[in-house]
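Box S2. Input/output pair 1.
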Amino acid sequence: MVTSMSFERITIRTTKCSRFSPEGQRTFLDGICAAKERDHVSETLRKIRKAVHHNPMNLVYPFLHWKSFLSGVYLFNGNRIKIHPTARIERRSGHIQFGTFWYLWRGRGGLHLMEHSRLIVSGKVVVGDGVIIWLHPGAVLELGADTLINPNTKIVVKESVRIGRDCAISWDVLITDADWHYFIDSRGFRKKDTAPVVIGDHVWIGARATILKGTTIGAGAVVGAHSVVTGHVPAGSIFRNAYAQEVRKQVEWVKW
């Protein structure tokens, strides 16, 4: 289809030219619309051929989980999904393509939404094979448009994780908002083990980086490979930290 902006441009251009009658203008615009539709159909067929060439079962996989398909989660290459009846997928626009067609990556991942959890999608998101997205009870994950999550990444949410638009998350990255075990305070009580993670727009996270609870990464920032991030990364900066260091002494912790 021709957008309103391009339609106005074409209309102005054609009305200035005396050769085009109103009927000619309509014919001209109809021809452009038809050409764009042919291009769209051709691109769609190209993608279908690529998916089937990668794995013939890709003609079937998206429809095996038809409820998730209708919710905007398209599963390929045997990636799986499990959604609790009280969990929700909120698609504000676009969809999630779960599975890519790169020959060097062939691993099954999955999407698991537990009780009362929410996955919010705001545009097209591509998720590579072997990625695990696990939302615990009551957790919320937001994914922005045009974000790419590469194979074997893990996103495990206990409270809240928000990933902005146009982000590039490399392979083997871990993003989590919880410690998953508990530290004990001076009174013998368990400390809170969660804090929200916020990743801004157009953020690049390198391979095997770990994003821990309470992290905020500003828009346009780059996180180097193998970095361990906790705290604040300023917008437009490059963060690299691959060195282990002692940060506290005489701690007590408890499993589960």
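Box S3. Input/output pair 2.
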Amino acid sequence: MADNNTEFGSTNDMSLEELREEIESIDHELVELIARRTYVADTIAEVKEERGLPTTDERQEERVMERAGQNAEQFDVDANLVKAIFRLLIELNKVEQRDNR
């Protein structure tokens, strides 16, 4: 990303402070999305418990990881990094699901 013109706009017109404010806003959005994802995962855990299903669904995890890789490629982000983040999210959700059973 040496080029100052990205698909997200030009950085030439933004001050360092404006760029930091943009990062702060993005960080807020990321935490909000993690909270939403966690809420949905908790709801899924409740459904699994009601139906007597196991906490772990390896096929679903594989689908999530595949999607994460595809989304990373779509946005030109390191797929290994994105998959590592999703692996962490999945593992944390599984630990929470087990603790709540």
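Caption for Box S3: Residues 1-5 have pLDDT under 50 and may be disordered. Helices lie at 16-51, 58-74, 79-100.
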